[in-house]
Amino acid sequence: MEDLLLFIGGLPVHPLAVHFAVVLFPLAALLLALVVSWPRLRNQFLGMSVIFLALTVPLVFIAQQSGEALGDYSYEPDPHSTFGDLMTPVALATAGVAVLFWIAHKVSWPKLILKALGFLVVSAAVGATAMTFVVGHSGAEAVWG
């Protein structure tokens, strides 16, 4: 499995996988924040946006694991590897809060709880997007800086 996460067709997987995670995960997170914040969109697109976010979490995991494999093969650039290790838990927490909000919305939990969960979802989505930028920027600095 480690070889699969290291090279595909002679090319390192990490630079390829990162592009999917860096684009799709923040896009899904920001879409979710928009949908949660706007009641008209929430009723129509909440399920789709939660599923879209959940589908991007494996991309974050693959990017993180392929980075670990590449780090073992060559070197682990700090602070990029440290930030990268945090990205999967951040993505999982964001998806978890989103699923909880989706359930709360479907079951019609009290408004106060929905508002608190909505605040957590938006905060997690914005924070996860910022963390993705930090991880990606530190990786670019490690390679090109």
Write a concise keyword list for the protein shown above.
about 140 residues; mainly alpha; two-stranded antiparallel sheet; 5 helices; elongated
What features would you describe in this structure?
The chain is an all-alpha fold. It has one domain. The protein is 88% helix and 3% strand. The chain has five helices and two strands, in the order H-E-E-H-H-H-H. The protein has helices at residues 2-6, 13-37, 39-73, 80-107, 111-144, and strands at 7-8, 11-12. Strands 1-2 form a two-stranded antiparallel ribbon. Strand 1 and strand 2 (11-12) form a beta hairpin. Helix 2 (13-37) packs antiparallel against helix 3 (39-73) and helix 2 runs antiparallel to helix 5 (111-144). The two termini are 31 Å apart. The model has no long low-confidence stretch (mean pLDDT 91).
Provide a concise account of the structure shown.
The protein is mainly alpha-helical and 145 residues long. The chain is built from 5 helices and 2 strands.
Strand proportion: under 5%
Structural domain count: 1
- Give the helices and strands as they follow along the chain: HEEHHHH
Overall mean confidence score, pLDDT: 91
Largest sheet strand order: 1-2
What characteristic shape results from the CA principal axes? elongated
Helix proportion range: over 70%
Distance between the termini: 31 Å
* SS field, number of helical segments: 5
Low-confidence stretches: none
How does the SSE layout of this entry go?
Elements: H1 2-6, E1 7-8, E2 11-12, H2 13-37, H3 39-73, H4 80-107, H5 111-144
Antiparallel strand pairs: 1-2
Helix pairs in contact: 2-3, 2-5, 3-4, 4-5
